[in-house]
Amino acid sequence: MTLAACSTGSDPAPGEGPGGAGSASAGGGSAGANGGALTGGGAGSSGANNPSGGTSASAGATSGGQAGAAPIISGQPAPGSAFVHLFEWKWTDIAAECENYLGPAGFAGVQVSPPSEHALIATYPWYQRYQTVNYSLALSRSGTAAEFADMVHRCARVGVGIYVDAVFNHTTAGTGANLGSNGTRFTKYEYPNLYTATDFHQPTCAIADADYVGSADHVRRCELVGLADLNTGSDTVRDKIAGYLNSLVDLGVAGFRIDAAKHMAPEDIDAILSRVNKHAAGHLPFVFLEVIDNGGEAIHASDYLTVGASSGQAVSITDFQYAGSFDRFLDFAGRTLSLFKTLSASTGNLLPSAQAVVFTTNHDTERHNVVINYQNGKQYDLATVLLLASPYGYPSLMSSYAFPMDGPGEDIGPPSDSMGHTNSIYAPGSKTPNCAPDPLNPPAGSWVCQHRDSFIAPMLAFRKATVGAETITNFWDNGKDQIGFGRGAKGFVVINDESTALSHAFTTGLPAGSYCDVLSGGLKAGACVGTTVVVDATGMATIAAPPMSAVVIQVGQMK
């Protein structure tokens, strides 16, 4: 199904209710590598980066100048950046992953699960993290406040910023007395030393399915799947939320994903962000909003484009309509890759590139089996190649754990013990995470790690190498699912999403020379490990791509 055909994330599917159904963030994590390299090699290389149009983060600024001080990563991501969402990973494991892989591979950031105290719910489902009890970092399912702070500093030292998933549209659902992850006892609407009933929208109401089309006010004031809806128009509430965000800024957090932003008025979010401090380096944190906009509803992602501008830095926004375009890799409803030729902001179906956070799948769409996910194997890999090869937006890659799709088990939490304590993905002393050995068929409850697929690091390097060539050039298609396109005079990409081989003479726009396909091994010791592509003096090259594969060449990878 397409994104437009179903509700996901903040917009629950009909019948999904509060007694344990979704949070305003939605989604739940699966993850998955996807059957290995696209063409058989792809050793990792460094450098991330996307043309998201922002200014470079001041990753080199230090927080005091003393030896060993962690750098402060802040501001807009550098052009050519990309980040990963390590859904439900522990703080200690994220720190290790930054040092062992994310930094060397060239990731600019990592989105982490909400660090605030959350409700404890029977069976410990993923969505309990999105039911906020207190803004304390003392203890969540991912670890302690000390472990969180250590993760922020260790990741910053290798150039990776931490993006916190911030949940403040709502608190919890349920009835009766309940317990938080740090031992706080609470009832819905009454949270000790934080909120009382007067801090929530009154009178209470529930969002109806029809409201998404007919009433923006109800979507923003009423309760999403029974979650107590904070009155973010109140200065008291705004100050408390900003205090939480500022405590994270003080720790060196690089940015925030604002969960369920669609369920808050743009002016409320803007007022909260106006209270958020700059980092010591002088930059505001990077902020992006979760606004699920599949088209045809009362609320549009474009309604939020000016949020933050008055404070000096407009927010970015998740582009769900772009994510929906990746169903073309599955030939959904006859849609083919050739249609990417006409996809652009100028046609009105994309956000401005500088403010778009883009993805093939996230913990919303993956959980509900919408569009495409790691279980689609090579098609998912090829979609990820296109995501990273395109100049559009700031890409987010999904990585979490396996769960049964579209069934009673889709809400399971991360790999855990019987008491809901998340299992470490890194064994003590190990430099390698314990990822599922077969990413196409991982057992439910195992870590999948699709961000470690062998083609990912070379594609991050391609993004960096093509910065400055911000338009698609020399687009070619066969009318179906074989395409090729250039990034000016800096790179060229061929994608074959068909069961038959492709061989074609392409106008690449590249300087003459012998190029090493980065996905089949790239350049090593002055020679191509895998495929060599010869570009002649006119910029032409005959490129062969086997079924379900891609070939990627770039300046700097020439023998």
List the helices and strands and how they pair.
Blueprint lengths: L82 E4 L4 H15 L3 E4 L4 E2 L13 E3 L4 E2 L2 E2 H13 L3 E6 L11 E2 L5 E2 L24 H4 L1 H6 L13 H17 L3 E4 L7 H8 L12 E4 L26 E3 L1 H5 L31 E3 L19 H12 L4 E6 L56 H10 L7 E5 L4 E5 L4 E6 L5 E6 L5 E4 L6 E2 L2 E2 L3 E4 L4 E6 L3 E6 L5
Helix pairs in contact: 1-2, 5-6, 8-9
Question: What does this protein look like?
Answer:
16% of the residues lie in helices and 17% in strands. It is globular. Strand 5 (139-140) and strand 6 form a beta hairpin. It folds into two domains: 3-31 and 51-465, Glycosidases (TIM Barrel, Alpha-Beta Barrel); 473-554, Immunoglobulin-like (Sandwich), CATH 2.60.40.1180. The chain starts with 82 loop residues before the first strand and ends in a 5-residue tail after the last strand. The protein has 559 residues and is of the alpha/beta class.
In short:
By secondary structure, the chain is α/β, with parallel strands linked by helices. 16% of the residues lie in helices and 17% in strands.
List keywords for this structure.
single chain, 559 residues, alpha/beta, TIM Barrel, Immunoglobulin-like, 2 domains, 4-stranded antiparallel β-sheet, globular, disordered N terminus
